[in-house]
Design brief:
13 strands, binds 6-O-phosphono-beta-D-fructofuranose, six-stranded mixed beta sheet, globular
Length: 545
């Protein structure tokens, strides 16, 4: 039991002893704090000096990691053991970015050659499409690419497309248009295709299972939309490709499996953006940039696998997340990228973190109390709620609560030293805001300072900032494909670290099943004019009107 471990008890005592200590005094009492509370590795400067920790905290957290067997768990993942026990699967997104020639064995087979075989086919296809050699059914080159997928088959591709837009130019050719359709709401499809010419449009149908109702419904609509203009069924081969693990369902849909890019059951949906699910990313940025992104992922994988815990970025980040969650009692985390290209990064992280660690049953099957309806015996919280917006927009929206609300919201600030679009003083101003927010959260502003500025007594309490609000700052040189790979892998492995401490399965997602099943039965109920449910009756009446 996690809460019975000696390291957990030691952390509880440690927290009790330091709980009232303000970050102001931690900095005042330790002049080297800002320089020392840093992990500088794999091209990421990770400053955790503004976390509510002392020099004793990280060693105690590392004791906890050791008592939870983190090192063995990491090795088990990299060895291809079936650590996703509830689905009896290996968890090997790290194999997707292993270099050619590496060896990772699952069920007696080295999977790395298979990974590179698919990457090579993707690169070949991307080359033909990007150069204009691949033509549509009527002989026009493809100008528009529409990815149809949802969850991990959408959020990774959208996030990476937006993040790496700067790299999506083609030499001497006009920009291609990329669209992403995920929602089963017909508006998503209609708006994504409204201004596109079917003769110049390629659909990438991305679904690991090829059974997800939203994706299949959108894919059928895409086929109808394309064939309304292109008429002949033969056009499907030129305008549809599939990314899936399910070849049978792909060919049943009518897509030639020669135009299918596969992956495997050991790739979880939310860990799949660097598998064939990244096809739209590769089409946008080209195979070389895609390879560079994979190399970035791999650099972080190797760092995670090898570095000692005290200097291991994902481990330190994951342990601090546990500290904030379970000892400070914070139930949310704000992810605040100070880079417009990362505008979809928080949405991407929501699936990665919350689908992975939103669990209330341990690997041993015992229910966690943690204040949830599960109401079990082991009493600790698991995954927090993630949200965020790019800076500085968030500052003019929800930061009020971060600074003066009653809740503690740990923040991850993410910034780059070099702008991809240098424009006057914009970048320094942007980054000055990022640095300033972290300082304001940590140090606040006391009543004395407020009054010394001439604020009347009655107004002073409203203008006080308590401070002592924790944050991490992540600084990278420049947003490149390689940097994006390192950043995403950092969060992936931090999520893994947290899941190991909480003794949960970070790799299944049974929690999304019930709603899916109910929707399928309710869709039938909607045809029944005798439905006893008042809400459905009202829907039927209004729908007719
Ligand atoms: O939301 C549940 C889920 O299974 C995700 O884990 C997954 O990313 C998404 O659905 C899409 O699944 P598929 O790629 O099989 O269509």
């Amino acid at each position: 039991m996690l809460t019975e471990l000696p390291a957990w008890k030691a952390l509880e005592n440690h927290w009790r002893a330091m709980q009232g200590t303000h970050l102001r005094s931690l900095f005042a009492g330790d002049p080297a704090r800002a320089a020392d509370f840093v992990v500088d590795a794999a091209g990421i400067y990770f400053d955790f000096s503004k976390s509510r920790t002392t020099r004793d905290t990280l060693p105690l957290l590392i004791d906890l990691a050791n008592q939870c067997g983190l090192a063995e768990h990491i090795q088990a993942m990299f060895r291809g053991e079936k650590i996703n026990r509830t689905e009896d699967r290996a968890v090997l997104h790290v194999a997707l970015r292993a270099p050619r020639g590496a060896g990772i064995v699952v069920d007696g087979e080295n999977v790395v050659p298979k990974v590179h075989e698919v990457l090579d086919r993707m690169a070949q296809f991307a080359g033909r499409l990007r150069s204009g050699e691949w033509k549509g059914h009527t002989g026009k080159p493809i100008r528009n690419v529409v990815n149809v997928g949802i969850g991990g088959s959408d959020l990774g591709p959208v996030m990476a497309y937006e993040a790496l837009r700067h790299y999506s130019r083609r030499d001497g050719l006009p920009d291609q248009v990329f669209r992403f359709v995920s929602n089963v709401d017909g508006t998503d499809f209609a708006e994504a295709t409204r201004d596109l010419d079917p003769e110049e449009t390629l659909f990438v149908i991305s679904s690991k299972t090829f059974t997800t109702i939203e994706t299949m419904t959108n894919a059928e609509s895409a086929r109808r939309w394309a064939l309304a203009r292109l008429v002949s069924e033969a056009a499907v081969a030129k305008h549809f490709v599939a990314v899936s693990t399910n070849a049978e369902a792909v060919s049943r849909f009518g897509i030639d499996t020669a135009n299918m890019f596969g992956f495997w059951d050991w790739v979880g949906g939310r860990y799949s953006m660097d598998s064939a699910i990244g096809l739209s990313t590769m089409l946008a940025i080209g195979p070389e940039n895609f390879q560079s992104m994979l190399a970035g992922f791999h650099a972080m994988d190797e760092h995670f696998r090898i570095a000692p815990f005290a200097k291991n970025l994902p481990v330190v980040m994951g342990l601090l997340a546990v500290w904030n969650n379970n000892f400070l009692g914070a139930d949310t985390v704000a992810v605040l990228p100070y880079d417009q290209y990362l505008k979809r990064f928080p949405a991407y992280l929501q699936q990665l973190t919350m689908e992975s660690n939103g669990k209330s049953v341990t690997l041993a099957g015992e229910a966690l109390a943690g204040g949830t309806p599960a109401g079990g015996s082991a009493d600790y919280q698991t995954g927090p709620i993630y949200f965020g917006e790019p800076g500085t927009n968030g500052q003019h929206s929800f930061y009020q609560l971060l600074h003066q609300g009653t809740r503690v919201v740990p923040c991850d600030f993410i910034g780059f030293a070099q702008s991809l679009n240098p424009l006057g003083e914009h970048h320094d101003l942007l980054m000055a805001n990022m640095f300033a927010q972290a300082e304001a959260l940590a140090f606040g502003k006391s009543k004395e300072e407020v009054i010394a500025e001439g604020t009347p007594d009655w107004l002073a309490p409203h203008r006080v900032f308590q401070g002592n609000r924790p944050s991490n700052s992540l600084l990278l040189e420049r947003l490149t494909p390689h940097a994006l790979g390192r950043l995403v892998a950092l969060y992936e492995h931090s999520v893994f670290t947290q899941g190991v401490i909480w003794n949960i399965n970070s790799f299944d997602q049974w929690g999304v099943e019930l709603g899916k099943k109910l929707a399928n039965s309710i869709v039938k109920e909607l045809q029944n004019d005798k439905t006893p449910k008042p809400l459905l009756q009202r829907y039927r009446q209004l729908r007719k009107a």
